[in-house]
Structure formats: structure tokens, C-alpha cells
Amino acid sequence: MRIEKTQIVSVSEVQSGIFILTVESEYFAAATLPGQFFNIRVSESLFPLLRRPFSISDLTGKNLSFMFDVHGEGTKILSQKRAGEWLDIIGPLGHGFGIEGEYESAIIVAGGLGVAPFPYLTKKIRNKKKIYSFIGARSSRHLVTQGIVNVYSATDDGTTGYYGNVVDLLKLKISEIPGIKKIFSCGPTPMLKSLTDWVNFVGIESEVSLECAMACGFGICQGCPAELHDGSGYKLVCKDGPVFNSQEIIIS
Fold first, then answer.
1. Taking a C-beta distance cutoff of 8 angstroms, is the pair 242, 248 a contact?
2. CA 48, CA 43: separation in Å to the nearest integer?
3. Do 157 and 172 touch, CB atoms closer than 8 A?
4. 64 is in which domain, residue-wise?
5. Angstrom distances, CA of residue 152 to CA of 22, 53, 122, 155
6. CATH code where residue 37 lies
7. Residue 39, strand partner residues
8. Considering the domain boundaries, does residue 177 fall inside one?
9. How far apart are the first and last CA of the chain?
10. Which of 24, 86, 105, 152 would you label with 48, given CA atoms 20 to 30 Å apart?
């Protein structure tokens, strides 16, 4: 982990209100694993005061990409950045996905902007594992599949793919997926709860990347607790996660 001034390579809108921002950093490119995140200072002024956490979305050469939607002043400022400007970034932070193992089929399950970490994960495992990607969104206007392979889509309004939620779609298709399976997931809390309740019941190995507000990003403020299943206390999403085994934590 370190702080670095990185130069912006590009900022592009890939779907309605959804952006990909790419920066260049040789150090970060060499040090970052799928599922880790960065804390970005979006402005040189004191507003917004706190950095914003973004998972690594993709990595090509020395270029790192972050996916986000505009839902506040911080992300609005980021969406207006231009190539050649500079960003103050801390990272890589947290623990990423466990991509090694004897599983044969990697199942990606993402809801909304939960798709963000998976282009890079896909790139790292696509030559080793068979990938099945289940991507959900509110509508076709909000569905992002850039960098994702073998996609099964679901939308809440039925404008593309399965009419309904992505967890129900996975349940319909799971019997068609061969071999030892492992699920990698990220998305809204209700989706993750539904998914982890089911996978824990049926016994499929599963990792979940949690999304939550963070202040420091490395465990000092204690502001992002995740309750443990065994009743022994809490772990911190920023320091111990954001990726956890689905049987380790309580999602509610």
C-alpha cells in the first residue's frame, strides 16, 4: 500500500450514468489483485473531505480502471475529470478474491455496479477456469457487461435477459454448470443476502465482496464492521475484506 499521484488516461461513460476512469501507475499495476480496492481523493479542495473507495475493475499494462456511477458530489466530480489530470490514490487495499483452487467452474454473480470488480477477475482466470457470469441490473440501460464473458443477464423490468433477479436466474441454471463450482459475488446487500443464504444451504463454495461506506480504508476508524457467523465479534470490510467467504460473515 502506498499513496501515489496518478495521471488520468481516460474517463468514459459506458452506460447511462456509469463511467470508467483509467489511470496510469506502474507500481499499482504490479501490486494489485482482483477484488482489492483503492481510496481516491476526488478533489484537491477540502470538499468532499473523505476519499472514496473504488474496487479495481480492470488492469491492462500500466493502466488501472475503476467503474462507478454518479450518485453524489464525489462521483460527480470524478465523472467530470479529463485525461491528463492527476488523482491522489491510496492502495491497493484489502484482501481480494481467492482465485486459486481445485474448482473447475467459476460463477460470477453481480448486481448493478457490483459488476465492477469482475472484468479484472475474468482476465486473471479465463485461461484456467470455465466462467459463467450472471449479471443483474434494473434495466438494459443499467446493464454493464464490458470485459465479462459467457453472460447470463437479468433485469428487474425485463428489458433484456431474464425477467427478474439474478439470484433466481442462477438457481434456474445451476444444474447446467459442470464440475466443482466456486461463486464470486458482489452487489446490493439484499442480493448478497439472498445469494449467500442459498449457497450456504446447498454447499457451494462462495466468496462475497462487500460494498459499504468507508472513511479511512485501512482499519483505523473502525467504521465498516462485518459481523461474524460464529458470534466471535466483527471483522472490518476495509482491512479484513472486502472479500469474505460467504460462511464467515452475516449479511443482513
1. no
2. 7
3. no
4. 2-93
5. 27, 28, 15, 10
6. 2.40.30.10
7. 53, 90
8. no
9. 30
10. 24
Give the pLDDT score at 45.
84
Residue 248 lies in a domain: no
Residue 176: what residue type? Answer: E
Q: Residue 94 in contact with residue 239, Cβ under 8 Å? A: yes
Pairing of strands 205-209, 181-186: parallel
Query: Whose CA is closest to 85, among 149, 155, 15, 23?
Result: 23
3-state secondary structure of 216: coil
Count of CB atoms situated within 10 Å of the CB of 13: 11
Instruction: Single out the residue of 159, 151, 186 nearest to residue 34, CA to CA.
Output: 186
Rounded-to-integer distance, Cα 225 and Cα 213, Å: 10
Q: Which three cell numbers stand for residue 220?
A: 483505523
pTM: 0.96
Beta-carbon neighbour count of residue 4 at 10 Å? 16
Q: What is the pLDDT of residue 200?
A: 95
Q: Could you give the number of structural domains in the chain?
A: 1
- Please identify which residue in the block is written with the cell numbers 478533489: 43
53 domain-assigned? yes
CA distances from 35 to 171, 208, 249 (A): 24, 10, 17
9-32 confidence digits (pLDDT tens): 999 999 989 999 999 999 999 999
Is there a domain that residue 30 lies in?
yes
